[in-house]
Specification:
By secondary structure, the protein is mostly beta strands. Helix content is 12%, strand content 30%. The protein has two domains: 179 residues, Glucose Permease (Domain IIA), CATH 2.70.70; 46 residues, LysM domain (Membrane-bound Lytic Murein Transglycosylase D, Chain A, Roll). The strands form five sheets. Strands 6, 9, 11, 12, 13, 14, 16 and 17 form an eight-stranded antiparallel sheet that branches. It has a three-stranded antiparallel sheet with strand order 1-2-3. Strands 4-5 form a two-stranded antiparallel ribbon.
């Protein structure tokens, strides 16, 4: 069964390649503001046939009906200034959406963050690799030949790592999708602000402690890699996107 769409801010896109897609779907779609885009590992012509229907479906899911919220649990050493800076909002924003009487917050308190990263600029994002140690690159970013003379876009890199490797959050972010994807296993998509998003797969579903719309900090443990959904060699599939376009993820490599 196809899981429910977890983001209702989607719009059509005409670029397909080897990248992650919503299970059971063969076209591209993504977020207008965050750049979160999911593209199916299918030939480009399939976008043409399914784009109209998908665009109609997702256009009905409008952000105007529901505010863009994230959820953050206060940690030791936190204060409103730090939280506001990390997630690109103001202290006033946090006061208003949480109806806070003062600047005092307590460890374990759940805070809502409305429109996270609305003030974040690209220069504000500090990146790190999701891997502690770099393994061999099994498939590079960029187009490759599929053995039949057809060039297929590769939207990310596949890095050889042992199954069960710890995966960390590459930058402050909000988890926008977690779920299974044909040929990729369990996929996680994280919004980081300024139009950037990352895609990580395959992750072991039982190792994941986060839910969609959770706000996570750079370096947080997201989970562990799963066994390979294709082939015999375990790997991490890693994508970096900017405003919906896949770009070289060199800044995320150890």
């Amino acid at each position: 069964m196809v899981p429910a769409v977890t983001s209702n801010r989607s719009t059509g896109d005409r670029s397909c390649g080897r990248g992650v897609a919503q299970p059971g779907q063969r076209a591209c779609f993504g977020s207008r503001r965050s750049g979160v885009q999911i593209s199916a590992p299918r030939p480009i012509f399939t976008c043409r046939y399914l784009l109209t229907g998908l665009f109609t479906l997702f256009a009905a899911l409008t952000w105007a009906d529901s505010p863009d919220l994230a959820h953050y649990r206060v940690r030791k050493g936190d204060n409103l200034t730090r939280i506001a800076t990390q997630f690109g909002v103001t202290i006033k924003d946090l006061h208003q959406v949480n109806k806070l009487a003062s600047d005092l917050i307590r460890v374990g308190q759940n805070l809502k963050i409305e429109r996270p990263f609305s003030r974040t600029k690209a220069k504000d994002i500090r990146w790190q690799s999701p891997l502690a140690k770099r393994g061999p690159v099994l498939r590079e970013f960029g187009p490759y030949e599929n053995g039949q003379g057809v060039m297929i876009p590769q939207n990310g890199v596949d890095i050889g790592v042992p199954a069960g490797s710890t995966i960390r959050n590459p930058a402050h972010g909000v988890i926008r999708y977690v779920g299974p994807q044909d040929e990729y296993g369990t996929v996680m998509i994280i919004e980081h602000g300024a139009g950037y998003s990352t895609v990580l797969a395959p992750l072991a579903s039982e190792s994941l402690a986060w839910r969609v719309d959770d706000a996570v900090l750079r370096g947080d443990i997201l989970g562990k890699t799963d066994g390979p959904p294709q082939g015999n060699r375990p790997y991490l599939h890693l994508e970096l996107r900017h405003r919906g376009k896949a770009i070289k993820p060199d800044r995320l490599l150890p």
